[in-house]
Design brief:
binds alpha-D-galactopyranose, alpha+beta, globular, nine-stranded antiparallel beta sheet, 31% strand
């Protein structure tokens, strides 16, 4: 028997175990009052197994005891040589901390057991509260940190990370998994052997970023996986430092570059949530846990599945107007689309990307009657209506900028660097935040809008605030906090509103954003073979239910070659299916194919969006295979993709995972006779999936509900 899920405590020895279904985490307090990490891994059976918290012996004069102690929140100060999570400067210029244990309290946050531990500085009135929240069912441990200045003089925080995680000593080979990319090629999995030293992932330009995602996982030689992800949508840093003896420490938080937080007397700074977990069952186990955790505890509407959408961007670009959008909407409704989204181009003087951002009112030339008739037209056809906005930005050619040129980040004697012809609004300012709330609130009040695509199409530069130069170190954090506050306010005032997060594709799909948005636009690259790699990467974190994926036209600008329409559909059906192609140009045959796959998707949506996703193959040898399983085994779907078949070699059988061994699965693939197998056979031997003999072949196999 292992420890029951929840918080276990041995008061005498001052140790705590945070027990989850298939993992445990433990910490304790040393006689000196340091909070020591004791354990992270498979479940514990008995608290008595944990060692007494204690200082390790010094190894040498150069490696004093404190430098060898794995602390839960190692602050900069004293003889600490390793990774640190907090740096503060006191009014008398003392810039070191000495945090000691004060008290610990178990609580519940919703249905999650939690533990808070308060640390106090030994000499200054500064306290740090470490918060641990357990998703016991999914082995995800969320940490947040609250730093309070209880004194009468200001303190300046120079780093305030969300936590430190100490992994047990691991023998080689162990691997670090990260995601890297760029615009149009986001989230590609990188794997490297871990060697002593530090790997740092970061974002420094105001948004989560395309180059890197705030997640890392470490895979041991036997395939166990530890992962950490940070729920923050601005500048962030994740560092993994491995010592020569094989221990790795990860720290994560808001980037300390350009960060200097004035903590006024009585004020508290809260560092964002970081979510970590352990999976003895490896990468797929880690994926399942994060997906389930996100589905249950992060997305704002856990019970809701996402509708099939169509989006105007690639069909009509900026040339949206009432007739073109009504025609597109008719076509979309005819094939079973449920949410019609009008993308960029609908607002004042927006004929290209060089004007209009900031003026969130319908362009009277394109929409002489306002948006009302179009929205009514869409609603009359049984679809929801969605609209694109980019609220954090302004074009210099806009009424907003002409009225408030001081509302963008800038330095008085530097040019304001435009990118995509736009500047970033200084959202750290309360008046700018309030203006955006009012403008969007008016838009949503005047129009029956069900959905916003919230975009963010350039990085920060010249991050200055000439009126408040002393607040410069707060800007990047305030910006994100105010984006969150605006979205939260709008959702509260318009409870029917759903939101898609987008930043030139997948530039901002961290869990801070997904806590308040319903889906993410994963990449502007919809070329299906590229999308397979991108979706495989981001699927280490995000479940299918939030991954926006469109079927677009080929050949086209970014996709110079033809891809079979079935293949394009199957790739988009891995996530939240959408149509991005120009439906006005689709042939009757293509529309019939679309109608067919949308109907199939709507039938399979519960298992795709709310089931468990497993990547049986992720592009190795040009083959991808993705399994979706309902947790009660009532539904099963398998998508198989092959990029080419140079040698005319049939694919091996795909061994399915986690099925009920004795259950009989009635398997259906179009164009093939139905087959019935037990779960044991499908897991042990696997399923042959015949593919058409073409380039970019794909198939969808699923468990027929009309069982014979
Ligand atoms: C970004 C988005 C696209 C589209 C355009 C509109 O690039 O990623 O999907 O909305 O902006 O300008």
């Amino acid at each position: 028997m292992t420890l029951e899920p929840g918080i276990h405590h041995d008061a005498e020895r001052r140790v705590w175990a945070l027990a989850m279904a298939q993992s445990a985490y433990a910490l304790g307090v040393t006689p000196e009052g340091f909070v020591q990490h004791l354990y992270w891994g498979p479940p514990l059976a008995d608290l008595a197994d944990l060692p007494d918290p204690s200082m390790p012996p010094a190894r040498s004069g150069q490696e004093p005891a404190l430098s060898l102690l794995p602390e839960e929140y190692p602050a900069w100060g004293g003889l600490r040589l390793g990774e640190t999570t907090l740096r503060a400067v006191f009014a008398d210029s003392t810039r070191e901390l000495d945090l000691r244990f004060a008290e610990a309290t178990p609580r519940r946050v919703g249905d999650q057991p939690s533990l808070t531990i308060v640390l106090r500085d030994a000499a200054y009135p500064l306290s740090v509260t470490l918060e641990y929240r357990l998703d016991t069912a999914h082995d995800c441990l969320t940490r947040a940190v609250h730093i309070t200045n209880a004194g009468t003089e200001p303190v300046r925080l120079e780093r305030a990370f969300s936590g430190a995680w100490h992994l047990p000593r691991m023998l080689a080979p162990r691997h670090l998994l990260t995601l890297a990319g760029q615009w149009g090629g986001e989230m590609r999995l990188q794997q490297q052997p871990i060697v002593p030293g530090t790997t740092m992932l970061e974002a420094r330009h105001g948004l989560t970023g395309h180059q890197s995602y705030p997640w890392m996982a470490i895979e041991s030689a036997v395939g166990e996986v530890y992962f950490v992800t940070l729920a923050w949508s601005g500048n962030w840093a994740l560092r993994a430092t491995t010592e020569i003896m094989g221990t790795t420490t990860i720290v994560a938080g808001i980037h300390d570059l350009d960060f200097a937080w004035p903590l006024a007397p009585g004020a508290t700074f809260t560092a964002p949530d970081a979510i970590a977990g352990f999976a003895a069952d490896g990468r797929e186990g880690a994926r399942h846990r994060l997906h389930a955790h996100i589905g249950a505890h992060i997305v704002p509407q856990p019970q809701e599945l996402r509708p099939v959408l169509s989006n105007s961007w690639e069909a009509t670009l900026f040339a949206v107007d009432e007739p073109s959008q009504m025609q597109l909407a008719d076509q979309a409704a005819g094939i079973g689309v449920e949410l019609f989204v009008m993308d960029d181009g609908w607002f004042l003087r927006r004929t290209w990307d060089d004007a209009g951002l900031g003026d969130w009112i319908p362009d009277p030339v394109k929409f002489p009657r306002g948006l009302g008739p179009l929205i009514q037209h869409v609603h009359d056809r049984g679809m929801l209506f969605g609209l694109w906005v980019e609220p954090e930005m302004v074009n210099p050619d806009s009424d907003l900028y002409r009225a408030h040129p001081d509302w963008v980040y800038h330095f008085p004697r530097r040019p304001r660097s435009a990118s995509r012809n736009q500047l970033v609004l200084n959202l750290a300012r309360d008046d700018v935040r309030d203006h955006i709330v009012a403008a969007l609130d008016d838009l949503l009040t005047d129009n029956a809008i069900d959905f916003l695509k919230w975009d963010m199409n350039r990085p920060f530069s010249e991050v200055g605030w000439p009126d408040q130069p002393e607040r410069i170190g707060e800007i990047a954090v305030r910006h994100v906090e105010h984006v969150y506050a605006i979205i939260d306010t709008l959702r509260q005032r318009h409870p029917q509103l759903r939101i898609e997060t987008c930043a030139s594709g997948g530039g901002r799909m961290d869990l801070g954003m997904l806590r308040r948005t319903d889906e993410a636009w994963v990449s502007d690259n919809t070329r299906p073979d590229a999308r397979l790699a991108i979706q495989a990467g981001i699927s280490h974190i995000l479940p299918a239910r939030v991954q926006g994926a469109w079927v677009t036209d080929t050949p086209a600008l970014l996709r110079r070659q033809e891809f079979p329409l079935d293949f394009r559909f199957h790739v988009a059906m891995l996530g939240v299916l959408g149509i991005g192609g120009n439906l006005l140009a689709w042939s009757d045959d293509e529309l019939a194919t679309a109608r067919h796959w949308i109907a199939v998707y709507r039938d399979l949506r519960p298992v795709i969006q709310a089931g468990e996703q497993t990547w049986l193959a992720s592009g190795e040898d040009g083959v991808s295979a993705v399994q979706y399983r309902a947790l009660d085994n009532s539904q099963l779907a398998l998508f198989v993709f092959r990029l080419g078949d140079r040698f005319q070699e049939a694919l091996p059988p795909f061994r399915l995972r986690d099925l009920a061994p004795a259950q009989r699965y009635h398997i259906r693939q179009e164009g093939q006779p139905d087959q019935t197998f037990t779960g044991s056979w499908l897991m042990g031997h696997g399923l042959y999936v015949p593919l058409p003999d073409i380039h970019f072949a794909s198939a969808l196999v699923f468990q027929s509900l009309n069982r014979a």
